[in-house]
Amino acid sequence: VQSISRHDYRPYPYRITHADLQFDLQADATRVHTRLSVESADASGQALVLNGEDLTLEQVALDGRTLSPDEYTLTENTLTLAPGTLPAFTLEITSLCRPADNTQLMGLYVSGNSLFTQCEAEGFRRITWFPDRPDVMSRYRVTLRADKQRYPLLLSNGNLLESRDLPDGRHEAVWEDPHPKPCYLFALVAGDFACREQTIQTRSGRDALLQVYSDHGSEHQTEWALDSLVRSVRWDETRFGLELDLDRFMIVAARDFNMGAMENKGLNVFNSAYVLADPESATDASYHAIEAVIGHEYFHNWTGNRVTCRDWFQLSLKEGLTVFRDQEFSADMMTHGLPEAEAQSARAVKRIDDVTALRIAQFPEDAGPMAHPIRPESYQSISNFYTATIYEKGAEIIRMQHTLLGEEGFRAGMDEYFRRHDGQAVTCDDFLSAMESVYVRQNPGSTLEQFRRWYSQAGTPRVKVTLAHDAAAQTLRVTLEQRNPPVGIETRQNPPVEKLPLHIPFALGLLDGEGKELSLTHKGVKQATALLELREKSQTWTFENIAEQPVPSLLRGFSAPVIVEYERTPQELALLARHDTDAFARWEAAQSLATRVLLDSISRPESGSPDEQLLIDTWEALLQDGSLTAAYRSRILSLPAERELLEKTSPLDPLAVVEARRRLIGKLGDALAPFWMTAYEDNRIDGPYAPDAASSGKRSMRNLALLYLMAAGGQGGQELTLEHYDAARNMTDRMAALGALVQYGTPEARSERLQHFYTQWRHNPLVIDRWFAVQAASAATSLADVRQLMTHPDFSLRNPNRARSLIFQFCTNNLRNVHSREGHSFWAEQVLALDALNPEISSRLARVFENWQRFTPVLRDSLQQAWRHIQSQPALSSNLSEIVNKALS
Ligand code: B3K
Ligand code: ZN
After folding, report:
1. Residue range(s) occupied by CATH 2.60.40.1730 in the chain
2. Is the pTM of this model over 0.95?
């Protein structure tokens, strides 16, 4: 299989102005009649090449005349015609696809009793022959015909023009989308659903119908989704001045879905996990995720759909930007109506959660064999590039632009972007140029030329900080030095790649020895936080009126996606953890102190860490600091996640990480038991459930206290946890108790409550996903237990959510039990089983161990063997073979 290069982009030689699609929908075989209005774009008479996959071609006609097979060339994946110099013509194609056999869930497929489509990135070619690339934009008219009883609802993009009954119990619906779009945004849904709807008035006074469709029986679970959609519409109007451009906007929940959701124009299809919620069955985290994903897909309507990508190398153009937008949306929703101090804290909590996710998923990716810039240079399979780098690092790169331009400047840049490119398929560079047009006005003589390197350079930059205090002159010299070491394939390139310095906004604050914030005076300007713009390899700033050697607060707010290198004493960390005024940096200091203690205890398990008492004292101080909100306190008092810690060991030593972390949680639980008990009592909530920031924050703090008490190991912890489980009136509390029991409980308590949970929730698939997941991820669950769970009647590899809840959870999060020869070969076995069904999912599972070379020697050998076993199999999917080859190269 060959790889595609960004530089090979050529415009498509034809325009497809209109696409008229007629579907005779049936699960086993669906006939699609496609009528394309084609215009030559460059009069060059080049061949017209269409893509197709797993289709049966029945007929091709040009301007009404049926072509004989010698008038076109058909290969497995292309249909080529030579229309000569015709300036415009009509092309009609009839073909068959087979939804019921479509286990990949790309193209038209069956889920439950319904039919759904997923076209991004290259699924439309599995529906009909078409130039399946995002820069070909057409107006669609879609006629759906199907059995009325089986498929009473027939949905597609845009507006419903007409619907009528047909003979033989069939019916049809005709949809027309007024907005030209690339085919990856096409969608249809056919089935029987419940609908929750609301009509709203958009900012300019137009009526718009918002609808959420889901399986019958789940209508009580769609209220939050619809409300989130309304909030998304309002937010985009106020924050970005962007209005809904449709009369009707639909969301449909699917039980089988490869990703989170899909932003098809006017007809979003969602993984049901990101639609359905009620207090009894959904956690706070799922409420927040639903709001974020609904926002994300809705925001794509402008950033993605109105302005789309020229080619798939530009994926971050829409994804990075839209993630940034959904992060801001969530932050605004969380802080809405709160007093200033609490709002700031809530904003910091959101930032902490986003940065944690970036560090767990993106940093390792950026240091491994799949490392790629946010605008990749080449790929073999584009579905492998829906990565944390494109999404989350992409969002950080947008956020830095926001930091450099300011809120108003950024908004002006966005306005300019839409003024220039509405209705077009464009590049990342086009976006940056729009932002730059504002930046140069704000900073005469300066450009974003150097900032562009963020788009072409992979790897996490390192910024080394050096301070030089001059007591006599009362000045502080701060030197920042950046390194951009080679990553992934770059490490093997000869001559070595020369990486250029990036433009890095670095926010800095200073505290004195008592923890009081100092102001930074540079060239006469005085501020609490200085934004240093590092552009050179090394740069120095001098601050005046600094009487004593200060404690620096570095990379405040995580102002750039970099790793800071600065040697700190544990006492400095403790000081920052107690006093830093920047909530992010304060959390970071506490985390660093905990990390240090954990890494110490890994490197010398006998003696433990000399700083353990300091950590306990710091935790105690934080537990008693009345100025902290519960949500923030729960974040600052959590130990770094196993996977985050793992990244800090070298070689990677998963078992040591698990043991050290469990030991320290137990120790903190025990040493501070009375404080945890107080926190547990103080954060009790009476009254009805609401997922707002304050209440969910209280639940997180209370449940964290519970976990520490449970981990402390005494009899009391388990009793409290069992009571907590029984008294829970919402899924957040229920799951927290179950999770604590499954991790730390006695075998009897654990299996008794697991059984109870299963019996209570067996009819709710999303909750049963949690039941599988909580077991799979627990250190108390062995490989044999997982194999046993796979024989459970509710388990199926075909449903992506279920595969993720058991197999992915075990391989990704059960660090104690997956890392053995047997565990590794189990992983390889599941990768292969999934590959036969669904390559998008199998290659994701494969990626769990792409960093195999960094593990301890014994684990590395066994992982290598497992990788080789995968590689030696015949007929790997293109997705999987790309991953395997990169991992083993
Ligand atoms: N754009 C979709 C991703 C679809 C990827 C499928 N291989 C979801 C999103 O980012 O909004
Ligand atoms: Zn997206």
Report:
1. 4-192
2. yes
Q: Burial code of 779-808, b = ≥16 C-beta within 10 A, e = fewer?
A: bbbbbebbeebbeeeebebebbbbbbbbbb
> Judging by beta carbons within 10 Å of its beta carbon (0-12, 13-18, 19+), is residue 860 exposed, middle or buried?
middle
Q: What is the CATH number of domain 566-713?
A: 1.25.50.10
pLDDT tens string 486-539: 998 888 888 888 899 999 999 999 999 999 999 999 999 999 999 999 999 999
Q: Is 208 within 8 Å of 155 (Cβ atoms)?
A: no
Pinpoint the residues of the chain covered by CATH 2.60.40.1840: 462-560
> Of the candidates 176, 326, 178, 309, which has an alpha carbon nearest to the alpha carbon of residue 240?
326
CA of 436 to the centre of ligand 1 (A): 28
Enumerate the CATH 1.25.50.10 domain ranges in the chain, comma separated.
566-713
Residue spans in the chain of domains classed CATH 1.10.390.10: 312-456
What is the average pLDDT across 314-321?
Answer: 99
Looking at all shown ligands, the one closest to residue 185's CA atom is 1
**Buried b / exposed e along 731-744 (16+ C-beta atoms within 10 A):** bbbbbbbbbbbbbb
**CB contact set of 677 (below 8 Å; sequence gap of 6+):** 705, 709
**Which contiguous run of DSSP H or E holds residue 379?**
strand 378-379
Enter the ipTM.
0.99
Whether the Cβ atoms of residue 198 and residue 165 lie closer than 8 Å to each other? no
436 close to ligand 1 (CB < 6 Angstrom): no
Choosing from 297, 328, 392, 850, which is the catalytic residue? 297
Ligand 1 mutation pick, 263, 317, 323, 843, max ligand atoms within 8 A of CB: 263
Considering only CA atoms, give the Rg of the chain.
28
Nearest CA to 548 out of 624, 660, 489, 470 is that of 470
- The verdict on whether 53 is a catalytic residue reads no
Q: Judging by beta carbons within 10 Å of its beta carbon (0-12, 13-18, 19+), is residue 652 exposed, middle or buried?
A: buried
Identity of residue 92: E
Predicted confidence (pLDDT) at residue 476 exceeds the cutoff of 90: yes
| CATH number of the structural domain 4-192 | 2.60.40.1730
CATH of domain 312-456: 1.10.390.10
Q: Looking at the domain that runs over 462-560, which CATH code has it been given?
A: 2.60.40.1840
Q: For residue 889, give the H/E element and its range.
A: none
HEC assignment per residue over 690-755: CCCHHHHHHHHHHHHHHHHHHHCCCHHHHHHHHHHHHHCCCHHHHHHHHHHHHHHCCHHHHHHHHH
Residue 291 has pLDDT above 90, yes or no: yes
Nearest CA to ligand 1 atom 10: 319
Q: What number of CA atoms fall less than 13 Å from residue 613's CA on the CB side? A: 1
CA of 271 from ligand 1 middle (Å) equals: 11
